[in-house]
Amino acid sequence: MKAAYYDKLEGYKAIKLGDFPIPEINEEEVLVNVKAFSLNHLDVWVMEGKYPMEIPLPHIFASDGAGIVAKVGKNVKNVKEGDRVVIFSGLSCGVCEKCLSGKDNECNSFRPLGVLENGVSAEFVKVPAVNVFKIPENLSFEEAACIPITYITSWHSLVTRAGITQGDTVFIHGGGSGVGTALIQIAKLYNATVITTVGDDWKVDRCKQLGADFVINYKKEDFVEKVKDYTDGQLCDIVVDHIGAETFPKSLSCAKRGGKVITFGSTTGADTQVNLRYIFGKNLTIHGVYMGTKGEFAKILKLFPDKLKPVIDSVFDLNDVQKAYEKLLSRQFFGKIVVKL
């Protein structure tokens, strides 16, 4: 099978194309003929050697994919050959207390597909049958490939951890990113007032078209002061920071007393100084989020494409996969970047 891979951890420029054997599946697994996969910053951290585990080399990468079931193990009942499916990216043991209680993203062995195992940047990938879900009707393979990490992380952040309620005020960094577009859509399901940031003026109207009420160009304006202005000093019920060290201390200033702060990304670094007075003085709750659960994924799939709709910036051929990651790192995109096979 044709695959994009790397044999050294030197970033996206080390990606190559080559031929690999088609994976062999066991009785509980499914072989998926991948038709599209979407890019995540996680892919870059892994290929740059920044993931805190040893990555097997050579490595077929990427976590979020969709395609057609090519083969099923003899014990598989939930899908059959020929089904159009999307792959839930979170792998876990399936038998520990956390997995059995529906909190599989808290399993000690929980990890994204494409990190320790070969991922979806290939014509075929093998995955446990419990990680394969039928694609909702009227969604393309490219759209389905955008859902897993992006939407499950966003749902787990706003709904499960922050407990968003009708009419909340929600502040979201990076509204033009893949996860930003998902967070805006989910927040609007709860009639939230959404404030978000962008780094380019051309993204302002795009965010508003998705439902954002206020959009701040953080390169031109102080986002804390603008949040104060937009909320008449009341600040926000929920603040979602997936940027990291560059923004997190100021993000705390955007949360009202008793507010919730979500963190799940560190694209600008993970080490930061935090004023503890903002936390205990405002009675804040800080939630760390690492993806979400299979149960949540099954739930959110019901909302596509009528209530939620993936935003695709661009689609690249597998031969141009390096260009796709170059665009991801340029930040000159809106929504998700997809590679088709």
Describe what this molecule looks like in 3D:
With 341 residues, this protein is α/β, with parallel strands linked by helices. It has helices spanning 41-47, 97-100, 141-144, 148-161, 178-189, 204-210, 223-230, 248-253, 276-281, 294-301, 321-330, and strands spanning 2-6, 16-19, 29-38, 59-60, 64-72, 84-87, 90-91, 111-112, 124-128, 132-134, 169-172, 193-198, 214-217, 236-241, 255-263, 285-288, 312-317, 336-340. Strands 3, 5, 6, 9, 10, 17 and 18 form a seven-stranded mixed beta sheet that branches. A six-stranded parallel beta sheet has the order 13-12-11-14-15-16, with helices on both faces. A three-stranded antiparallel beta sheet has the order 2-1-4, with no helix packed on it. Helix 5 links the parallel strand 11 (169-172) and strand 12 (193-198). Helix 4 (148-161) packs across helix 5 (178-189). The longest helix has 14 residues, at 148-161. The radius of gyration is 20 Å and the shape is globular. The model has no long low-confidence stretch (mean pLDDT 97).
